[in-house]
Amino acid sequence: MSRRRRRQQRRMAYMNFAIIALLIAGGFVAYQFIKPAPYDEQTLCLVSEDLPPHTAIILDKTDEYDAAQADLIAGLIRRTRDRLDIGERLSLFELDAEGQFDPRGEFSLCNPGRGGQVNPLFRNPGMIEARYAELFEAPMDAVIEDLVVPKEAPASPILEAMARLGQTENFSPDAPARRIVIVSDMLQNSDLFSAYGGAGALPDTLPPARDVAESVERRYGRSLSGVEIEIRLIPRGRYTDLQRGALKEYWDDILSELGMRTDWRDL
Fold first, then answer.
1. Do 163 and 216 contact (CB within 8 A), yes or no?
2. N or C: which end of the chain has fewer CB within 10 A?
3. Residue closest to 136 by CA, chosen among 35, 38, 36, 41
4. What is residue 23's predicted lDDT score, i.e. its pLDDT?
């Protein structure tokens, strides 16, 4: 074999080696970008110093609702769950007469992703779907069964409950894209204000919306500023016209003063 031939072979070998090295390096870099990020086994949230986007569903259990409404509520919760991005947190809360969230009806986990949401080159879709069903879907379904059991309470401190939620660590203003979905008749009944006593209209003793907002801010700060709220209204017989009219406008004024963006929808 000639010297020139040997030099050509060595060059080809070096080139092949360089190409292989580049492919390996490129694959490693790609894997670093595509590989699954570590997550917390308790919350299923990605391990990060930053809070994830957070949607909170509040079910107002201070008044009763019928079986058909219970089915609609369960469907609403599941549709909200199915719209979550991977890593987005979803919390379910049951509001009691004290304006607190009953821990028996509490669920707060991040969406770990479904089989169809992951890259099959790096993760097994079947295993991911099984994890989703076991760790996220099943616990939520168990909570939903209790959440939709009708209950009744003598007071309805809706606004206080939302403001307290805004003070919690996971739903604080540090969390991006905060969103509340509240299923309620919105007939507030607490020391902030009461929608009752006006014989089907707003009571004459109702404080101005700005005064209510200032009372909330004195107690809880600006904890709700920037929150998007979707109100799923439960109509209450003789109060329906009030709920859809003057009471809705009153709530809109209060929530706007608190820095919230509001969307009203039927259940």
1. yes
2. N
3. 41
4. 45
pLDDT along the chain (267 residues), means of 10: 58 52 43 57 87 94 81 93 92 80 76 72 73 90 76 76 92 94 94 89 94 96 96 92 96 98 93
d(CA 7, CA 106): 73
Rg (CA), the chain: 26
194 DSSP assignment? B
For the record, the structure tokens of 231 come out as 């109100």
Cβ(63)–Cβ(234) under 8 Å?
Answer: yes
**Cα torsion angle, 151, 157, 159, 160, sign:** negative
d(CA 152, CA 87): 35
Task: Find where tokens 């949230």 sit.
Answer: 45
pTM: 0.81
**What are the CA-CA distances from residue 46 to residues 38, 89, 126, 174 (Å)?**
6, 10, 20, 16
pLDDT of residue 261: 96
- CA-wise closest residue to 60 among 179, 150, 171: 150
Task: Supply 101's token pair.
Answer: 């969230």
